[in-house]
C-alpha cells in the first residue's frame, strides 16, 4: 500500500468503539515520501540510570516490519563476578559490515568488526586521557576518529534534569585499523574536543570543542569544572583532512554556538554535504539530560543556523543520524515523558525543512508507555549486522584486547 | 512386589482391608506428609512472616500482557519466572500467597509420591520437599532486597512442581509403552528448558534415573533413554543459547531460573543449601525406587523420626529470625501508611541495639509528629550492623523512603532507578518514582509509573489515589502527605553526590541549610544537633526561637543550648528561660561525671544510660563513632 502511494497521500479515518458505541475521529492524511528509508535501524537499549547497569543491548530493528534482534548484549558475558558496559556503537557510513563498539570493565576493549573479521583492541596508551570514546568512522578509509575523555557526573538536588555529565578534559585521536596505530590530533590544552564526525567526502573532520580556561589552578580540576558547569559551552569546528597523507589541518570555526548562548554538540553532516545537524542546549556536553536541548540545522552553503522548530519539542532532543539518501533523520527525543529517550523519525526535504516526526512504530502500540529503557544512539543501516551476538561474545570473552601503538 | 505403573498410585488403598492400628497409621501417613505437613508449614510461614511476605510482594512486579512476558521470556526459564511473579503478587494478602504455596507444595508431594512410588521408609522423603521450599523462602532476611531472580519466592515451588509433573507423565508413559517414554524424554528438554530452565533439565535427569529403576523397562530402552536424555540435557541449553537466546551467558545456561545469591560480586553459597536438598530429593527417590530399605517396622519408624528431626533442626537453623529486621519491616510499612505514631512504638518494642535505619525511621516519624525536639534522644541510639553475611546498604533497604520524606526527591528517584536496573523493577520502586515525580511536578513521567501500577492486580487503588494529583499542583501543595515534603525540599539546586551514604548526606544537607520555612528550619536545627556542630547550632537555634516566638522551646534544643553555653561560653545563656528540669538534669549529669572518673567511655555509657540516656547530654558525650551504611 505504501509502495503504491509513494509521492501521494493516504487518507486515514479512524473509528473507535467504546461501550458499544462507535466514534469517528477527525480524518487525517499521511503523505508518503518518494524516497525510501534505510531498511535497518540500530540503537542501544539502556535504562536511564546514572551509575548502575545490568542489561544492555545493542539492537537492530528491521524498519520494514517489527523484527528486533540483538547485535550484542552484555549479559552474554555476564557472571556473578564480572560485568561490563557496552557503548558507542558506530558504523562506517551505513554499512553494517563495518562497525565498532566499546566494552568497558570486564573483558574491556574496543570491538571492531570489519568485513566479517572481529577484533578487540585497547586504544588506551600512556599519554592519552582514556581509551577511545565517541567514535566516527572515516567514510572511505579504515580509519576511526575518536574523542578521548575524562568524564564525571554529579547529581542535581532539585533540577528535574537530575544528572550532569561533564568532561573535565578531552582530546581527539585517529585510529588506523590496519596499522593498529593511534595518532593524536594536536589541540590546545584549554580546548575540550569531542564528538568527531566526518564530512561525506572524508576531507573534513568536524567536532565540538569548548574552551575552558582554569580560573584557579590551585582548585581541583573536577571541582572547578563542576562549579562552573553552566559556563562550559561547545562550538563546532572542522579540520581539513588529507586521507592520503593522514594529515590534519588547523581548526576552523563552523558554528559559533557560544556566541548565541548555546552549547553545540554531536554534529552530523547530511550525505550530500550541505547540512550540519547538531544538538544545542544552554550549556554542557551531554544534552540527552538537558530538557532545553534541541536540534539545530546549519546550512553549510549559507553558514546560517536555525533551530529545527518543526521537529523539536519542549523536552530533550539529541543524537541524530541521517539516512543514506539524506531524506530521513532519526533522533532521540524525550518528548513523551521527559525521562525516556525514544527514536523519532522525520522526513527532511531538500530545502532542509523537516516534516512532522513520528515515533518508531511498535508491534505493541503502547510498548513505550511501559518500557523502562531508553534508545541510545540511533543509526540507520543499509542492512543487518550479520555477525551473531554469540560470535561477538566469544571474541570479547576469549581474546585479550590488542594494545594499539601510539604514532610518534 | 511389582507395582503397576499404568495405574494411579494410591498408597492409602494398600491393604485397605487391614484395620489394625499400624495399618491405619500407614495409610494415614501419606496424608500427614503430603497434605497436613505442607499446610502446617504454610501456616508457620504465614504466622511468623506476614510482614516479610507483604514486603516481598512490594519487591515484586507483575504486569499483564505480552510485553512483560516477553521481557522475561528472553531468557531460558523466563516463563517460570513470569508465573512466579504472578503468584508473588498474592502476598499482598500474606495468607493468600501462603495458601498458593501450600497448594503447590501439596501437589509436589503427591506427584513425588506417585511418580516415584514412595512408601515405607522412602515415604518420608516427601517431608524434604516442602521443607526445602520453605527454607528457601524463610532463610532470606536482607536478601529480599538483593535477590535478582524475578519471582524468587515461587520459582522453586513452581519449578519443582513442573519437573515432578514431567516425571510423573514419563512414569506413566514409560510403563505403558517404553518408546512413548523415550519420546517424552526426548521432547521434554526441548520444550521444557525454554519455559522452566534448570528445573526442566532436573526433570530429565530424574527420568533417566527412574527408567533404570522402573520394572518392565527393557535394557535397550534404558540405554537409549540414558544416551538421548544425557545428550539433550547437555545439548539443549548449549544449542538454544548458541542459536536462540541472545542475552544468556554460556556460564549460566545450566542454572537458568535458579537463584545465584550474589551480592556485590560475591556468591553466598550457604543460601543454596535448600536448593541442593530440593533438587536431590527426587533424585534420591528415583535411585531408591524399588529398593526395600527395610521390612522392619521399628527401623522404618526410626528412619521417619530421624528425618523429622533433621527437618526440624534444619528449618530452625535456616529460618532467619532477627528482631531488628522485623522491626524495620514493620516500621517501613507504618511509614508507607503514614501511621507515624506507630513507628516509635515499634522502635520502643524492639529489644537490643537498633540499626541506623531504625533510628532514622524513628527520628523521621517523631519529626513528622512534631515531637523530635522533645523526644528524639529519649530512645536508644545505636548502629547495630544489619544481620546479614553481605554488605547491606540503606540505599537498598529503607533509604528511598527516607529520601522521599526528607524532600530529596531526585535522590529517591535516582536510587529507585539504579536498583530497578540492578535488581529488576519492583512495585515499591515504581511507587516511589511516581510519588517523587508528583512532588517534583514531573507529572508526565509520574503518569507512566501510575499507569503501570494501575495494571497490577493489587495496586490499582493506590495508583488511582495518586493519579488524582496529576496536573493538580494545588492539590499536591495542600496534601497532608506532600506538603511537609515540599517544605523540606532543597531551596536551590546544587550539584552533589551522596556517595551512597544516605544518613551522612541528609545530615550535611540539612545542617548546612538555612531555611526560613518553619518545618525545614527545624530540620536544619535537628541536623546540626545530630552532627554536634556547635557553630552550626547557634544560628539555627536562634532562628528557631524567632520562628516560634510564642512556642515552648523543645527540651532537646534547650539541653543543647544549655550544654553548649556552658561548654564554650561564647553565647550568653544567662537570660535564656531554660526549664528547671533541663538545668537540674545538666547539674546531675555533671555531678555524676565526677563519680565516674577513671571509667572507659563504654563503661560510662552503660553507667549513665539509666538516668541520662534520654538526654542530649548523653548523646553529645557518650554516643560516638556511629557507623552508618
Protein described:
The complex is a heterodimer of chains A (408) and B (629). By secondary structure, chain A is mainly β. Chain A is 5% helix and 47% strand. Chain A folds into two domains: 1-32, no CATH class; 33-406, Neuraminidase. Chain A has helices spanning 221-227, 367-370, 389-398; strands spanning 9-12, 15-18, 21-24, 28-31, 40-46, 57-62, 68-73, 84-92, 95-105, 109-114, 117-122, 135-137, 143-156, 163-176, 181-185, 191-198, 204-211, 234-242, 247-255, 263-269, 275-281, 294-299, 304-307, 317-322, 328-333, 342-347, 358-359, 374-381, 402-403, 405-406. The longest helix of chain A is centred in the C-terminal third of the chain and has 10 residues, at 389-398. Chain A is globular, with a radius of gyration of 21 Å. Chain B is mainly alpha-helical and 629 residues long. Chain B has a domain at 14-318. Helix content of chain B is 65%, strand content 1%. Chain B has 29 helices and three strands. Chain B has a two-stranded antiparallel ribbon. Chain B is elongated, with a radius of gyration of 30 Å. The mean pLDDT of chain B is 94. At the A-B interface, β7, β13, α2 and α3 of A face α2, α9, β2, α17 and α19 of B.
Question: What is the topology?
Answer:
The complex is a heterodimer of chains A (408) and B (629).
Chain A: E1 9-12, E2 15-18, E3 21-24, E4 28-31, E5 40-46, E6 57-62, E7 68-73, E8 84-92, E9 95-105, E10 109-114, E11 117-122, E12 135-137, E13 143-156, E14 163-176, E15 181-185, E16 191-198, E17 204-211, H1 221-227, E18 234-242, E19 247-255, E20 263-269, E21 275-281, E22 294-299, E23 304-307, E24 317-322, E25 328-333, E26 342-347, E27 358-359, H2 367-370, E28 374-381, H3 389-398, E29 402-403, E30 405-406
Chain B: H1 21-58, H2 66-73, H3 78-88, H4 94-115, H5 128-138, H6 152-176, H7 178-196, H8 198-213, H9 219-243, E1 262-263, E2 266-267, H10 273-287, H11 297-318, H12 323-336, H13 342-349, H14 356-369, H15 372-375, H16 399-405, H17 409-423, H18 427-440, H19 443-454, H20 460-467, H21 473-478, H22 482-488, E3 495-496, H23 502-511, H24 518-530, H25 534-547, H26 555-568, H27 580-595, H28 601-612, H29 616-622
Antiparallel strand pairs in B: 1-2
